[in-house]
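User: For my dataset I need records formatted as: sequence, then C-alpha cells, nothing else. Please produce one.
Assistant:
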Amino acid sequence: MSDMDADMSVPLYDGGSFRLYGNRIEKDKGLFFKSTEVTYYDDVVSARLAGRTLTIARTGWKPSIMLDFRRKEHARVALDIINLCKS
C-alpha cells in the first residue's frame, strides 16, 4: 500500500455520523438498515455555512447534504478542509 492510499483511508475530520477524507465525504444513513452515502469532492458544486450547519450542493439531480456540528468553529474547520481538498 502506498502513502497516498494510507492518507485516503484516514479521516481528516470525524463528525460522528459523517467523516471528511482527502477525496470524499462519507455520511451514515438509515436507522434500521444502515448504509453509507459517499460524495466525492469532484461532485461538490458549492458549500454554504450558516451557523452550525454546512450545506453541500452536489452536481446533477443529487440532493444537497446538510452536516450539523456541535460548534460553529467545527463547521468552519470542515469547510476549510473541503475547500483545501477540492482545489
